[in-house]
Design goal:
Oligomer: single chain
Protein name: alpha-1,2-Mannosidase
Largest sheet: 3 strands, antiparallel
Enzyme class: hydrolase
Keywords: Endoplasmic reticulum, Glycoprotein, Glycosidase, Hydrolase, Signal
Strand order of the largest sheet: 5-6-7
Signal peptide: 1-30
Active site: 144, 284, 377, 398
Strand content: 5-15%
CATH architecture of the domain at 33-75 and 341-463: Alpha/alpha barrel
Structural class: mainly alpha
């Protein structure tokens, strides 16, 4: 079956404040009933939010990884990502400017271009060129480093090339692409396994360490093709795309007869470790990358995988407006729960053109948001209560992302009102003098001292214009 024409161009995860800015200020005034004065008011709020978070990071944290807004300090957290037990943390690692570099579709440096702030964009390029190196003895999660650092460098490079006429003469000499290539080279040893599935962890300086764990997630080995594919197209070095594509094809070959995949597996044997699966943590970006790879690269092989996987999700995971988890072998339900990462699915469905299904589920998520003021990390659908330990809200942007997609697809002003609610919640509950703080417990709204890099940006490399792929 051939793919339908996408209902939207290939955007992808947008920064929370940027996507709301685009939705609240874009489009013809009066077309959707959302007036000029209201748009301008929200635009100013969003601009203030962005610079409040960005300026505090640059003042108190750069070139370290992330801002601690309550104490106006920093944390070097790259080795902590995907590492809940905080094992094997480096001793002499002083940060990789993670918040400045990190991107989903657009990141902080890129948003400066969106906002027309080329002076600060130039500063960002120079800061990264002068401060960033990957020759460090640090154990990192390949998936997290790929989506946050490699994708960010590639995005910033493409925009620097596109807007070179707006920059000082001779300022940009492909420095960010060279950094991306250096990082990509450090990823390649992770793929040297019997299956081609990459190790989840690698040391940036020394490669795969002795006795490294062979367990990885479906997202960890199936969500690398966008960044590594674009890196190959930009550098002319096919190794990056070839490694990511081999891993993706191997992963797809391990699906069940129901076209479902589990959550974790072994990179050496290819055997599944966790058979229960869904559209949330550990699996989410696998689906996202398939459709975006099809949009970006135009190859039917990505569409064929995505279409089969999407139909299986709709058949075995969907229950009315909700999506539960199920055993990949039988399709039998295993866990009935909302997880905040599931919120991306509505944006994916909108890209696909399945707007009615996206809208139905999005409204249920919004009801949960309104109940708590933000979206809890995990909510038990079968009991109608918060998960006893995962009550936090780490400033995730997936719900805002899907709101943006649905507005762009429908132009229904109701989604702009949802956007206003999101902006209001973030300012009321999470804004502090030193930035925006994560919520430790949504039942008490107690904060924790962490402004995650994904507050300003999220997963998924931007689909560059076709001219970049030549």
């Amino acid at each position: 079956m051939r793919s339908p024409e996408p209902s939207l161009p290939a955007p992808a995860r947008l920064v929370v404040v940027a996507l709301l800015l685009a939705a609240l200020t874009g489009g013809a005034v009066g077309v959707d009933g959302y007036g000029r004065a209201r748009r301008l008011h929200m635009k100013n709020k969003v601009l203030e939010m962005f610079y409040h978070a960005y300026d505090n990071y640059m003042t108190y944290a750069f070139p370290h990884d992330e801002l601690k807004p309550l104490t106006k300090s920093f944390t070097d957290s790259l080795s902590e990502l995907g590492n809940p037990n905080l094992e094997r943390l480096p001793q002499d690692y002083n940060g990789s400017a993670l918040t400045l570099v990190y991107q989903g579709t657009l990141h902080e440096v890129v948003i400066l271009v969106v906002l027309g702030n080329f002076t600060e964009f130039e500063r960002g390029i120079l800061c990264l060129s002068e401060n960033l190196t990957f020759d460090v003895d640090a154990q990192i999660n390949v998936f997290e480093c790929n989506i946050r650092l490699l994708g960010g460098l590639i995005s910033a490079h493409l925009l620097a090339k596109d807007y070179s006429s707006q920059l000082k003469d001779g300022l940009y000499q492909d420095q960010l692409l060279h950094l991306a290539e250096s990082l990509g080279n450090r990823f390649l040893p992770a793929f040297e396994t019997p299956t081609g599935l990459p190790y989840a962890w690698i040391n940036l300086k020394y490669g795969v360490m002795e006795n490294e764990t062979t367990e990885t997630s479906t997202s960890g080995c199936g969500s690398l093709i966008l960044e590594m594919g674009v890196l190959s197209r930009l550098t002319g070095d096919s190794r990056y795309e070839a490694a990511a594509l081999r891993a993706l094809r191997k992963l797809w070959s391990l699906r069940s007869s129901l076209n479902l995949l589990g959550t974790t597996l072994d990179v050496v044997t290819g055997k599944w470790i966790e058979y229960s699966s869904g559209i949330g943590a550990g699996v989410d970006s696998f689906y996202e990358y398939l459709i975006k790879a099809y949009i970006l690269f135009g190859s039917d092989k990505y569409w064929d995988m995505f279409h089969s996987a999407y139909l299986a999700v709709q058949k075995y995971f969907r229950h009315g407006p909700w999506y539960h988890e199920a055993d990949m072998r039988t399709g039998e339900a295993t866990h009935w729960q909302l997880t905040s990462l599931q919120a991306f699915w509505r944006g994916l469905q909108t890209l696909l053109g399945d707007v009615a299904a996206a809208n139905l589920s999005h409204r249920e998520f919004y009801n949960v948001w309104q109940r708590f003021g933000v979206l809890p990390e995990r909510y038990l659908l079968d009991y109608g209560i918060l998960h006893p330990t995962e009550k936090y809200y780490p400033l995730r942007p997936e719900f805002a992302e899907s709101t943006f997609y649905l507005y762009q697809a429908t132009k229904d002003p109701w989604y702009l009102e949802v956007g206003e609610t999101i902006i209001g919640s973030l300012n009321y509950y999470t804004k502090v003098d030193g930035g925006f703080a994560s919520v430790r417990d949504v039942s008490t709204m107690k904060l924790e001292d962490h402004q995650h890099s994904f507050f300003l940006s999220e997963t998924g490399a931007p689909p560059p214009d076709k001219k970049h792929m030549a």
